[in-house]
Amino acid sequence: MPDSDNFSLSGLLDELEQELEAKESEKDKAKVNEKPEKVDEAKEDWNGLLQGLEPKEHQPAGDSTRAASSGTAQQPSAGTIQRKFSSDRRPSERIQNDQPALPVERPWRPTGAKSSTAAGVSLAVDANTACRKYMEDGSKILDPFDALAGASPGASGGTWGFFAVYDGHGGREAVEYCELRLHEQVAQEMKTLGPHEALKATFQKIDSQLGMYGAWNHGTTATVALLCRREGTREGELYVAHVGDSRAVLIPKVDSCRSLTRDHRPSDPLEAERVRAEGGRVTEGRVGGDLAISRSLGDHRLKGKGVSPMPEVTSMKIADGQVLILATDGLWDVVTEELACALLEKSIKEATGGGSANPKEVLERLERVCAQQLVDEAIRLGSRDNVLALCIFL
User: Fold this and answer.
1) H-only helix segments in the chain
2) Beta strands at 120-126 and 94-97: parallel, antiparallel or unpaired
3) Which segments show compositional bias classed as Polar residues (predicted)?
4) pLDDT of amino acid 341
């Protein structure tokens, strides 16, 4: 196992990027020469190592917290910002809703699941430099997610999409690692497991890998959405896995919103009980008086002491015309889910231009403005964190 004092996670990221570039170069050469591509044995050994990692116990290290330490990760003092909660947030370890979803008539044209799972995507970020010295939020969008081509929770194949938001603390290294590796791990797990178990296995293995490469004092939240659509239908399946306090919110019909996640914070009585049952303690609303979230990827100084990498997984049917929002807590600290829904509905009405705009023009405008309006509203309302919002139009 590498020595964390002499091994840099950023160095690992550079190495992985170089390997990917080299692999693509080899593929191009193989196509030109019409020869079979050679198997990269070192790469296979590396992947085998990563697949087989198990969580380890680690020595505690110095203080580095999400919203606890001084410096760049500083949070507002108690009472400065009241976190906005929806009234119907019900925690559960696994939600599965097989009820059919009803299509919603919207001014954009659905994809028909021919080449992607979403009709369009709107992404916006703001480092909020007045309050934060650097950006720790990240995202990943793969639509279609070619690595899952043909995979399906049912008997027939489908088109898959992968969407994720990450919110780092103590630095960006864990976020960058997840942006580079987490979707690959999902694809690997889906070869033998269904979506629920594949997502759980992915989060645990990525967390183990982060621990192996020195993520003692830094970590990240992760909210991941897998979409599966089948050609010729207006419905599909949605799977959401998350750790931390970045949220997923579905707009299933006009002027309605539904929380798909609950915040993993030690201030939640159920999370506090779990933390104590796993040998940890909650002091002043933080795990070990240190970390303000109770589940994360990384933060190995607190693994085995109440901070868990195990995600909660939600699944349900989705349909054309619905909208999915994934966003970091920089948005949800000051914007309620109901307000986010209202802002989106307002943007949709404005984009139609009185009903005369064609679907392509409407969608192009929504992709430009919707996420940006959410981010701008969070900054206007006084968010003191990085803000990232991702809107997915189905």
Assistant:
1) 9-33, 41-51, 173-189, 195-212, 269-277, 329-332, 337-351, 359-380
2) unpaired
3) 66-84
4) 95
State the pLDDT confidence band at 255, using cuts at 50, 70 and 90: confident
CA distance 179 to 175: 6
**CATH code of the domain made up of 115-393:** 3.60.40.10
Give exposure, 107-141, as e/b (b: 16+ Cβ within 10 Å).
bbebbbbeebbbbbbbbbbbbbeebbeebbbbbbb
Could you state, in order of their start, the residue ranges of all structural domains in the chain? Answer: 115-393
3-class DSSP state for residue 329? helix
The Cα–Cα gap between 229 and 392 comes to 14
Alpha carbon distance 393, 359 (integer Å): 12
* C-alpha to C-alpha distance for 203 and 181, rounded to whole angstroms: 11
Within 13 Å and on the Cβ side, how many CA atoms surround 192?
A: 6
pLDDT score for 354 = 60
